[in-house]
């Protein structure tokens, strides 16, 4: 089973340690950073599935960490924690790509619910991306549905040769692979 990795960032040691222990007990792989600078350094060296960061920190704050995370990978989730909650900072964080926003002191169970909800959404998104990458081919006539530029599932059905020519610009000739050639020769001889 996959163990999700979380980078936990807070300049308050007691919060950092308490949340880290709690999340470890929930079977998450937790790395701690006590500054925004340390968080960015860790993000450039290691992969994390989720960043949980305090908003107000000395030096690089949570918004700056959020901006850097999204430069590194838009697929890393971000939950902002703050003791100085106001609608402006919440809206700014969400506009910059934060996935959630919680006021401190936050209940650890509430944080867990938000983290689990984030990972459920990510799993669903991974499935959508996977299914979008699967090329739909008719099992009978071998036509291919070209969904490019349309809503998935609404594209035009093209004969395989037409699809490949459209996508690659290459002309095709018909021939046999060795296995089919052997079978065709058997069929012609009546074996």
Descriptors:
5-stranded parallel sheet; Rossmann fold; alpha/beta; two-stranded antiparallel ribbon; 2 domains; 191 residues; 7 helices
Notes on the protein architecture:
The chain has helices at residues 13-25, 36-45, 62-72, 87-95, 108-133, 160-168, 178-189, and strands at residues 5-9, 29-33, 50-54, 77-82, 100-103, 144-146, 156-158. It is α/β, with parallel strands linked by helices and 191 residues long. The chain folds into 2 domains: 5-133, 3-Layer(aba) Sandwich (Rossmann fold), CATH 3.40.50; 144-189, no CATH class. A 5-stranded parallel sheet has the order 2-1-3-4-5, sandwiched between helices. The model has no long low-confidence stretch (mean pLDDT 86).
What gross morphology would you assign?
elongated
Superfamily (CATH H level) name of the largest domain: Response regulator
The pLDDT mean sits at 86
Biggest sheet record: 5 strands, parallel
**Unreliable stretches covering 5 or more consecutive residues:** none
Helicity level, as a percent range?
Answer: 40-55%
DSSP summary: helix tally = 7
The CATH topology of the largest domain is what? Rossmann fold
Number of strands: 7
Give Rg in angstroms: 26 Å
Write the layout of secondary structure elements.
Layout: E1 5-9, H1 13-25, E2 29-33, H2 36-45, E3 50-54, H3 62-72, E4 77-82, H4 87-95, E5 100-103, H5 108-133, E6 144-146, E7 156-158, H6 160-168, H7 178-189
Parallel strand pairs: 1-2, 1-3, 3-4, 4-5
Antiparallel strand pairs: 6-7
């Amino acid at each position: 089973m996959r163990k999700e990795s979380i980078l936990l960032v807070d300049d308050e040691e007691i919060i950092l340690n308490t949340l880290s222990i709690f999340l470890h007990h929930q079977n998450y792989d937790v790395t701690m950073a006590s500054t925004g600078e340390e968080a960015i350094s860790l993000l450039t060296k290691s992969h994390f599935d989720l960043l949980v960061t305090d908003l107000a920190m000395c030096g690089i704050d949570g918004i700056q960490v959020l901006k850097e995370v999204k430069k590194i990978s838009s697929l890393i989730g971000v939950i902002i924690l703050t003791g100085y909650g106001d609608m402006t900072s919440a809206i700014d964080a969400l506009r910059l790509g934060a996935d959630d926003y919680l006021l401190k002191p936050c209940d650890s169970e509430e944080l867990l619910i938000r983290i689990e909800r984030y990972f459920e959404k990510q799993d669903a998104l991974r499935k959508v991306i996977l299914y979008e990458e699967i090329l739909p081919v008719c099992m009978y006539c071998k036509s291919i549905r070209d969904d490019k530029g349309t809503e998935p599932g609404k594209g035009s059905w093209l004969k395989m040769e037409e699809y490949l020519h459209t996508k690659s610009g290459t002309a095709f000739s018909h021939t046999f692979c060795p296995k089919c050639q052997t079978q065709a020769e058997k069929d012609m001889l009546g074996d």
